[in-house]
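Lab meeting minutes (informal)
Scribe: AK
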Amino acid sequence: MTIVDLLNKLDGLLWGTPLIAFAMILGAYYMIRGKFFPFVHFGHILKNTILAKSGESTKADSDKISPYRAFCLAVGGAVGMGNISGVASAIAVGGPGAIFWMWVWAFFGMMVKTVETSLGLYYRRKGPDGRYNGSAMDYMERGIKGELGLKFGKPLAVLFAISLFLMVLQGSGAYTVGETLNASFGLNLMAVVAVYVLFIVYLIFRGENAIGKIAEKIVPVMCCVYLAATVVILLLNITYLPEMFAGIFRGAFTGTAAVGGFVGSAVSLAIRQGVARSVYSNEAGNGTSPLIHGSANTIHPVRQGLWGAVEVFCDTLIVCTCSGLAILATGTWTTGTTGAALGVLAFTDAFGSFGKYFLGIMTLLFAFTTSTTWYLFYQNILAYLFQKKPGTLKAVQKGFTVAFPLIMLGNAALVYFTGSSADLFWTIVSIVTAFPLFFNMIALIFLRKKFWALLNDYKARYLGIGQVDPNFKLFAEDDPEVMSKIERNLKD
């Protein structure tokens, strides 16, 4: 059995029925218990996030970043390869039904990401540099072990941090850039990866502020331009839309028979591909968003959590849906082509040579936001793991700055020189995504009461639902009783 066979077997084991059922049940619990908050109050969410004209959404203090920049950085990490190559891979392997299961997790994910972002803000901490930081590790350690007094909170936080850090093995989009530009321009895949990695190194050395400023400008533009192109494809094939949606729902519950170069898929494969790609794309449930949002300047933890719901909505229910429908509309999904090459084929079919050049450029933009934002994620994870050893932390972070581009090259080289297709790349992505999702969902079970308290307080203050408790503290740091518990229990 080859290493590729072993990886495929591990992927199937990790993304089996237990993990998917666990995720769906937890998502359904939060959505139903929360009375479908992201949808019932969708107007309020938009008004206080992307439609907010000024003030709080753009304000940043020296020790915090603005909510909007946090949103752009988080969307930059989410809206990337999962939206083009990931969706194409899901359809190529799981058939049109995979799109339906992407929607299902996105539906629950809007609530789940609101929960994890809010908790990350509530349990935030002030670092040695005076800056605020919040993360899933913080709500595991400070929430589960600190406030609840459950000792497994600390080990859970460490396991989660290590598993999330291991996502670096997926190469942060470098392979997909090479694959796409190879399909679009005929360029050598590894040569493209090498040049791209050098570009990322340049951006990394410019620092976090530079990355944030670029993300603020590029994320909204790239999403709008890409969406406009997919809408044109749909308009050109509008008569096929009813058939496409019928195929999505039919494939979701009956599987998809072999057609053209497509080998057919079972319902279980459609579910696995759809949920796995949805988690990777919108990052709901895997605990990454608090790493960015935890430093945001916000008036209430749930107010920042609203941005999490918007991220999932924009990423999956809009961008991924348009990508998937564009591929289905052109009929290219039946050719047997997989990965980013399938996306290139779809755009070429619709727009001719312009289509493949357009997608090549868009892939570069999408990949840039993914690679740079994930670099910041990894550095924040290291800051948590070595927070009590500042000297070691500085050395480790410098070492990772050197290692990060080498890992990106190594991931692409593994797929390229083994003669494997993009399926191997997405198998690696699936494997490393499963572990942080599992550990984070465990934490969200134990911290559910804290979130409900935060949500009820937010609804009372800003939606006029319920009574405001003047003694309720919005952040753990402001509550002497909570901080006393955290300080006492973290000493044990």
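Next up, CB showed the second protein from the same session:
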Amino acid sequence: MEPFDLRKLEENVFSLFDQQWTLITAGPPDRCNPMTASWGGLGVLWHKDVATIYVRPQRYTYEFLEREDYFTLSFFDEDRHKDLQYFGSTSGRDEDKFAARGYHIQSAAQGQAAYPQEARLVLVCRKLYWNDLDPAHIPLEDRKHYKENDFHRMYIGEIVQALRR
């Protein structure tokens, strides 16, 4: 993986999340957990390049995001889509998901963040802000996503490094 200028990213950021999906990984390489997500975005906040992600409180990765200062967003070639389905449907409480799929963990942010070597694009993020989505502000037609009242927590991270294969 080579660092590159994020401002030269030539990707459709809507497709990156909605169709290609991302692998959110929180924690250092020796104790990290990945999960697949299709909700998120890239933008600018406080004059910083940022990524926004949304994680439900029952997800194991939530514990890692709460505890750690960094997380990574990894994007893959199409041939890894089945792996992303696995990462999204299997809990890291039960097994080491990276090992189960034969992925190789790399280190970023001075060892505070992990990402899989198999990714084609990685964004290393330093957690800046987080807050729970307030159901009072969610339109009625979108509350269908919360039948169990398990509202997402939103995390905003400053993108401190962009890497690509």
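CB comment: The beta strands are 2-3, 22-26, 33-37, 40-45, 48-55, 70-75, 105-108, 113-116, 121-132, 153-164.
No objections, moving on.
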